[in-house]
Amino acid sequence: MSSLSRDDVAKLAALARIEMSEEELVSLASQFGVILDAVARVQEVNLDGVVATSHPQPIQNVFRKDVVQPSLTPEQALSGAPAQEEQRFRVPQILGEAE
Amino acid sequence: MSDALSKGEVTSTQLTQAHLDRIADVDPAVKAFLHVDAEGALTQAARVDADRSAGKKVHPLAGVPLALKDVLTQEGIPTTAGSKILQGWKPQYDSTVVSKIKDAGIVILGKTNMDEFAMGSSTENSAYGPTFNPWDLARTPGGSSGGSAAAVSAFEAPLAIGSDTGGSIRQPAALTGIVGVRPTYGAVSRYGLIAYSSSLDQAGPFGRTVLDTALLHDVMAGHDPKDATSINGAFPDVVAAARKCDVKGMKIGVIKQLQGEGYQSGVQARFDESLQVLASLGAEIVEVDCPSFEFALAAYYLIAPSECSSNLARFDAMRYGLRVGDSDGASAESVMNATRNSGFGHEVKRRIILGTYALSSGYYDAYYGSAQKIRTLIIQDYAKAFAQADVLVSPTAPTTAFKIGEKSDDPIAMYLGDVATIPVNLAGICGMSLPAGLADEDNLPVGFQIMAPAMADARLYQVGSALEAALVSQWGGHLISKAPALGGSK
Amino acid sequence: MAISYNDVVAKYDPVLGLEVHVELNTESKMFCSCSTTFGAEPNTQTCPVCLALPGALPVVNATAIESTIKIGLALNCSIAPYSRFARKNYFYPDMPKNFQISQYDEPICFDGYVDVEIDTDEGPRQFRIEVERVHMEEDTGKSLHVGGATGRIHGADYSLLDYNRAGIPLVEIVTKIVPGTGKYAPEVARAYVAELRDILRGLGVSDVKMEQGSLRCDANVSLKPMGSEVLGTRSETKNVNSLRSVERAIRGEMIRHAELLDAGQKVKQETRHFQEDTGLTRSGRSKEQAEDYRYFPEPDLVPVAPDAAWIEELRAALPERPSLRRKRLKEEWNVPDKEMSAMVNADVLDIVEATVLLGADPTKARSWWLGEISRIANDKDVPVTELSITPADVAEIVALVNKGELTDKLARQVVEGVIAGEGSPAEVVAKRGIKVVNDDGALMAAIEKVCVDQPETAQKVRDGHIPAAGALIGAVMKETKGQADAARVRELLLGHLGQATS
Questions:
Q1: Which of B270, C16, C188, C224 could form a disulfide with B437 if both were Cys (CB 3.0 to 4.6 A apart)?
Q2: pLDDT at C379
Q3: Between C51, C65, C304, which is nearest A77 by CB?
Q4: B301 interfacial to chain C (CB closer than 8 Å)
Q5: What is the pLDDT of residues C238-258, one digit of tens each?
């Protein structure tokens, strides 16, 4: 039976930028075994030679002409911002470095 | 209603006001709506009335009110996707579906409740409290489009729009005794549809009758250059098909894997009867075998969480939505972490974690990769089946509406409710649920599911209308008329 | 212990890897129709798509596809008959979706190469840099860090985000590992980036201005002991903003790695930032804790399957390869290798060619641009191309000198005037009253005057002491306000003083 430990869940939560409570981490870890078993069923089938489907419809080559259309006004763009300054989105200090 | 409007027997304003009154009367008990936009609705109604009086040509559905699942953006109107993380957010743009609705002159009454980010099958995962089934207020209306289904079922709106990723239109339609359709993937624009699982999501119509649903389907469907996955080609005439009411000579395929064991006896009974009705109307019933469907649920619960773990990454407190923990010394990272923990509910977090796991290096092939291959097998099984039959059928859900709280502690039990609807989404084809009657053991609605190949949505309406006509004739009226009375006025 | 570069390359063998990002010059962004104009007010070029509002969806820019294929063809790549976009998932405030739409295992172009030539002690040497892939992705927004001492991210109190740049099309060109460059690693890297830049400029797909960020280079360096097959640990250096920095960064990293290895320490696999002022790199993010990007095919976009016939059309329409063009010009102008290199290195080849096409003699065009004009540019600390003098201006000046209306000395004054913004060469000549004094009569008058003023010197010349004529010529030039043709003056003066004019 597959399962995830509380630490495994904590690592995934960190990757997903969700700071879960200890309670939730433990609870998720305990539920995961059952869920993983259920989804692991996809490995029961012989999938040799089967090509994966990522799009249900066989559409290809959908493009947009390189023409400029009006953008949102800055007021619109910033209208949902939790904080703003000088027409920019204000965010708390960023610890990590850019890619 | 459209008839009455065009004949001038009633104005849109009157119609809209009547529905707003109904909402005020019954919604405190049903809780279908998260936001009612009385002002906007009445303004739109007045505009349509003015156009009609001026002799302008208007769409058949102009002036008819509609309830909109809170998963579609509507400019300036609070849109939450059933989540706290978007509490108070007012979109800066209309989704394409909403633009089309507005262009047709349809009146949007308000935004309806849903499972948070469309993840769930009961609307109990809404951050704003559950919606209650008009047939029995102690039960769920299904989900994730529970609010929209309940609104139509409770006569709060004649039409509604929902979204269906794993059955979230069809299953609530079944549980509330109305009609719900999940159109072919790509037939309805996803621009402005808050994404859960991009390769599975589609918005679709609810109505109390097959024809009503067809009229709304027709407005919603169409190519959209803003959605790269949108189909560009000839669209089926679903309204004409809904008027056909004829199944003579059609082959109806019963999917072996989607019936029998695990299905509530009343559900199975109504399903079998409906088959007999179709046979008596001249259709031929055949059995088809889709062995890969056994793995559909597992594949879905890998693909959808994987895609959603990525789609929901944008909710990070930086540009819109909830921001928590922004005090002295907080960092962007800590604010992101705290906000996402606070703003997302338990089910959403569960699926994000599952999806993050399924996509992580070392696990991709075994989980997400394998699930996408199962998908291919499902498409192949459907292709084989559709070579033997024009449409395929099954009960929409294994049970009737369950009690609030009954399944919410058991995620697997909840997921199992989607077993019959999920294959349609994985294959990208279309499906309909329409009322098949009430289950004997609990007097609750049972849904009959019809499935058709991609872009053959018209077949759903053709078969559905025929079955509906026969059943309505049997019952002496639409099933919904048997629902318990709610509130003071009707 | 400071170690010399020569010591480093005696003991160690460098292996390079270069990643170049190119900002395409499309009108609109990669996945939405917002404008890409540089320098707009913050957040005036955003929309639901590039802001990643809930429900927004990307749609691919057709011209970006075309530009990327052109780049692949120009780099001798195979064009994938079928390629897909993928999501690269990681969280960062400058990336609105918290994933970047990029390409993963199905890039649009792959397996190409670029040939470069550098000057070595043994003469010119060719290197072939293999290109592993060319793929498309999108740029991030820009952050302003407020409150810290240097405006850098460390120590900042908060940041302000402008998303105008988010979503601008980027093409990433990744080389395979480049071994065998030995002590010329820095030069080879520089030559590669320069050649890429010329190719891209020739294709017209990007401004390729490293100072503006439309061409960015990340340099990967590792050292292995001479003779060993085992690759060393590599470091990645970012923030390399000029060709010169490419060279310096690689040289600096080679030395830094060698110092560590000599001291028995390990090189950390990390990202480092190049510092212009010191030429050294500063430690950044540790790559060992690199995030798992959880790549998967982008479900909101459909595959790209370019038509084979269309690809051949694009291939046929490719402009002349820069290296071939250089060969051709060298032969046409009959210019020695060293002078060609000088022009290429000073980045004036295009401008010289333009001048020649307007009728100027290649040697004269070259000597103006590489000589006087470059000198002025250096004094002002700007690139030659930023001065207000055009090929047309230079061609006009060369023509005036040919006609005899200007001497070289006077022409220099005209050049100054044009650069100072006084107008076209003709206008400068008119405004400043620059005119060659051609009139022998006027010259003779000046010559006679000078000989009268300096009788001893004049006598010296009459006596056969020719060099003394120099002072007299200088005086005549002064008399004529520098507008006399010095050569003609000399002729007349010597004749006047009874000397042969040869």
A1: B270
A2: 87
A3: C51
A4: no
A5: 988 888 899 999 999 999 999
